[in-house]
Amino acid sequence: MTVHNYPIPPDVVPAEAVDTAGFWDGLARSYIPPLELKVDPSVRLHTDADEAIDPMTYEVVRYALLNVNFEHSAYLKKLCISPVVVNACDYQASVMAENGDLVFLGPMIQTFSNSQSTIVKWILENRSANPGIRDGDMFLCNDPWIGASHQPDTTLVMPVFYEGELFCWVGNVLHHADTGGTVPGSYCYTAPDAFSEPPSFPAFTIMENYRVRQDMEDVFLRQSRVPDIVRMDLRAAIAGNLAAARKIKDLVARYGAATVKGIMRRTLDASERQFAERMALIPDGSWSHRAYTEVSLPGDEGVYAYQVNIHKRGDMIYVDNEGTEEQVGAICATFSTFQGAVLSALATSLASDLGGAVGGAYRRVHFSMIPGTLNCADHPAAVSTSGSFTLEINTYCAIMAVAKMMACGDESLRELIIGPSIPHFYTFVLDGTDPSGNYFVSPNADGMMGSLGATVESDGVDAGGHFWIPQCISPNVEDVEQQFPVLYLYRRFLANGADGAGKHRGGLGFVEASLPWEPGDVSSIGMHSNESFTKAQGLFGGNPGTRAWFRLRRDTDVRNQLASGRIPTSVDELAGEEIPLGFHEHPVPINSDDVWEYCSPSTAGYGDPLTRDPQVIAADIAQYQASAEDVLATYGVVATDDGIDEDATQRSRNDRLAARINETKV
To answer: CA 323, CA 305: separation in Å to the nearest integer?
Structure first.
């Protein structure tokens, strides 16, 4: 049964679909806010907004509101201490209206695009009567059925009051190094359900009257293996909200509450209009993309489908997940994750020039979800791996469906198409003892280097990051080695081959290898992304991306080789036993002479490889040292010592096209 809280055209959703108030309650199922929030009358919302605002004031205040999130983000980066926040920028800041509508989104993780807004709306409906919402309060929530993408991504939101009325909200969400669960790092890929994962806390008051509630802070910290790290990051998040709230109060004091609120309203309306204008350049239609993953729990050999369907009708977008399989194992996500994936794909593709003022565009996007599925899981599904696997594969499906939609639109829109993204955030988690003798948990953040997919206009970007994290940063090798007892052997690009080939090729990923290094000790390594097939398909004939891998070699001679002055450049150059690992495995212990190698893959290509410009391939040969055999097999290009043989290349490509036609004949 498909259930929704919004009016959906009958040609998009079957007539038997129901609109059920209270069905999406955040308990048994994900919370989806209703059209009208039920807020206790004890909380008075500020709604007075000026309509006549001069252009100069509008621009000054609008950019000041935008800058609140930039400064908020800077505070988090400076004050947090965990590498996943400081180095990987795994966080986001937002400014929201009094009713929770998103006004401005920060420059970090875009898939957190509406999670804070959803959480605020839940708080208004469920906390306004008891315990109440007051000036100086702050709420903490990491419940995926309310709005978190997974339990480590913990949200703090704060109401901003003006003369006794709730004027707006500020908030942030950041990834904590460990929030409990069965494995270090809290990506519980061995969990059969939510009861084997970190606790999911519905929103509770972490601060009252500008004072941290020590009892509730202790409750949150008690679950963590590294409570001191989490405490410091939590206090940084609190400080970030306080600073953002102060800046908004300063704006209100200077320009007046009605003026600032009027500019918020106008900003939302302007972004909605621009989004609608761009939608007018696309014909009505429906577009879908389906992707597959594997291994719902260790030992499972199944393959599972996720699907995103986008329907454009007039100036509205309707989204559903029909075609996604039923929830199973530890590869699930809640509606909040699905919503963030779709909204980040739409906003980045169609509203990237709005400077984070995308809340108005979201008014034009309605969801119609099938509950109990892999990307709209009911409680108590296991969802903690969503932050590295399920979120990203739904983001990949969404950006592919959006690209197909935009390809049917105006030429100006086709130039904005974003290429395929990496379908997972490939990483691993180490734990052990640092050089000071302290226990550590370290999610590897090198995957932030990512790779950008090929587009209609150009090749992807090698190690170009991720489109849904515009300011992502990968840590320097030296930074990681300084903080943890790890030594890197190498980190390099993958080869430029058939993977990701196309008229425009996908960006290259990378491969790296490391080992434990004294002083300190690495105890175990978990989350082994050793794929049996590539997850990323190309657009419009482009080749799929690379298959990711994770290799572990036991009891190697690496230290002897290093002592002799030789640095191995492949695990195959090392003695020792190869340990077979799957896509999701229980954490395995690490010995002092073990070496692990992991790959973050190249993205998929765009367009038929046989249409790639031969002269561009000549440059590829020079830059990447591709062989004549490789370019002939992949692109049908005949390369000689004197350059590209144009006539032979045309014959080669014609032969391949003819062979394709013959293969399709029945």
So the answer is: 8
CA distance 206 to 214: 8
Tokens, residue 157: 């939101």
Pairing type for strands 211-212 and 204-208 reads: antiparallel
Helix (H/G/I), strand (E/B), else coil: 652: helix
| Token code pair at residue 160 | 């901003």
Beta carbons of 391 and 341 less than 8 angstroms apart: yes
CA angle at residue 425 from 324 to 441, to 5 degrees?
125
The three state secondary structure string of 496-537 is CCCCCCCCECCCCCEEEEEEECCCCEEEEEECCCCCCCCCCC
Placement of tokens 């761009």 in the chain: 278
Pick from 126, 146, 140, 72: which is nearest to 104 by CA? Answer: 72
Rounded Cα gap, residues 93 and 76, in angstroms = 9
Tokens 């918020």 belong to 264
Quick check: 460 and 505 in contact, CB under 8 A? yes
Contact of 317 with 310, CB cutoff 8 Å: yes
Beta strand extents in 70-122 (DSSP E only): 91-97, 102-105
Contact 367, 378 (CB under 8 A): no
Residues 308, 319: contact at Cβ < 8 Å?
yes
pTM (predicted TM-score): 0.95
Q: Using the CB atoms, write b or e for 498-508: b if 16+ within 10 Å.
A: bbbbbbbbbbb
Nearest partner of 338 among 303, 383, 403, 380, judged by Cα? 383
Q: Are 398 and 342 in contact (CB under 8 A)?
A: yes
Residues with Cβ within 8 Å of 149's Cβ and at least 6 positions away in sequence, in order, are 111, 112, 115, 333, 336, 337, 340, 386, 387, 391
The residues with which 18 forms a beta bridge, in sequence order, are: 3
Mean of pLDDT values over 208-225: 97
Q: State pLDDT tens for residues 126-175.
A: 999 999 999 999 999 999 999 999 999 999 999 999 999 999 999 999 99
**First and final CA of the chain: distance in angstroms?**
39
